[in-house]
């Protein structure tokens, strides 16, 4: 005897897992692109120190006792926003009604931002930081045994480059963070302020904030990155999202979004980024 069993659709959406962006901890917003597509910043050279010629004649070609007069160089770094991205989709009025109001424009827009826009921006920013790091390490296969030495050696490189001690961040993937936890020589400080913890800092190592980022938002060969936020400016010039109710030609909602963003590593601060690739 045939039986037709009942099917019930619940007013529930099975959302994908997503991770909040950590970009704000790793970059800065020091420059304003309002009214301009390109910003240029100057890099000014300096003069070498000399021995002051207190007595006797000055050497040939040097008529000042202070030394040979030098001309300072003034070069510029042009930063033009390259990423102008958009999306659009529609939700039919009956589709919204017949899915028990689970297919709605506002929630769909929030989902688009959470699952598509934020990951794309993060991926681009991290890629630019790794590609333009002023201190690229030699690709190494990271293991439980060498992870600690590799990280503290990289942090020492920032010391020698006179990068500010405070505010450094160590970016790792979940797999590399697992290596850190397995290494018996590493003591991860878990006493992290609530404000930093809410932003994504999970522990402290060698004075650096440890930040865990999903591997799918990082370059394929990513090992770890030590960075200071002074090195990278990550502007978002335009961020516009709209829901149009019953626009011409559509019975329902039309959702549109546009974001204009980019990331730039400053030439004179590039050594504040150390990128370690996996072999």
How is this structure best described in words?
The structure is a single chain. With 279 residues, this protein is an alpha+beta fold. It contains six helices and 13 strands. It has helices spanning 23-26, 93-97, 105-131, 147-160, 174-182, 194-199, and strands spanning 38-44, 74-80, 83-92, 135-136, 169-172, 201-205, 208-212, 222-227, 232-233, 236-245, 252-261, 264-265, 273-277. The chain has a six-stranded mixed beta sheet with strand order 4-13-8-5-7-6, with helices on both faces. The protein has a three-stranded antiparallel beta sheet with strand order 3-11-10. A two-stranded antiparallel sheet has the order 1-2. β10 (236-245) and β11 (252-261) form a beta hairpin. The protein is flat, with a radius of gyration of 26 Å. The mean pLDDT is 88.
Which class of secondary structure composition applies to the elements?
Answer: alpha+beta
Instruction: Characterize the biggest β-sheet.
Output: 6 strands, mixed
The coarse silhouette is: flat
Secondary structure: number of strands: 13
Number of discrete helical segments: 6
Helix-strand sequence: HEEEHHEHEHHEEEEEEEE
Spatial arrangement of strands, main beta sheet: 4-13-8-5-7-6
Structural domain tally: 1
Overall residue-averaged pLDDT value: 88
Low-confidence stretches: none
Approximately what portion of the residues adopt beta-strand conformation?
25-35%
Helix content: 10-25%
Distance between the termini: 64 Å
Compute the CA-based radius of gyration.
Answer: 26 Å
């Amino acid at each position: 005897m045939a039986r037709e069993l009942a099917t019930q659709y619940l007013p529930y959406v099975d959302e994908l897992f997503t991770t909040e962006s950590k970009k704000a901890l790793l970059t800065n917003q020091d420059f304003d692109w309002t009214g301009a597509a390109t910003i240029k910043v100057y890099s000014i050279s300096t003069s070498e120190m000399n021995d002051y010629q207190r007595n006797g004649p000055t050497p040939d070609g040097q008529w000042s006792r202070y030394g040979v007069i030098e001309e300072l160089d003034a070069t510029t770094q042009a930063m033009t926003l390259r990423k102008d991205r958009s999306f659009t989709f529609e939700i039919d009025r009956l589709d919204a009604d017949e899915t028990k109001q689970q297919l709605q424009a506002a929630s769909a827009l929030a989902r688009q931002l959470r699952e598509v826009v934020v990951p794309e921006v993060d991926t681009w920013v991290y890629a630019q930081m790794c590609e333009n790091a002023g201190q690229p390490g030699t690709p190494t296969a990271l293991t439980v045994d060498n992870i600690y030495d590799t990280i503290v050696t990289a942090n020492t490189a920032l010391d020698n480059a006179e990068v500010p001690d405070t505010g450094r961040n160590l970016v790792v993937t979940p797999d590399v963070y697992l290596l850190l936890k397995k290494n018996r020589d590493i003591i991860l400080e878990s006493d992290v302020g609530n404000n930093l913890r809410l932003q994504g800092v999970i522990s402290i190592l060698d004075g650096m904030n440890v930040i865990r980022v999903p591997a799918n938002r990082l370059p394929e060969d990513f090992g770890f990155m030590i960075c200071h936020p002074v090195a990278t400016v990550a502007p978002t010039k335009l961020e516009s999202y709209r829901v149009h109710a019953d626009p011409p030609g559509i019975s329902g909602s039309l959702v549109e979004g546009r974001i204009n963003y980019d990331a730039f590593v400053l030439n004179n601060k590039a050594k504040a980024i150390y990128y370690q690739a996996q072999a």
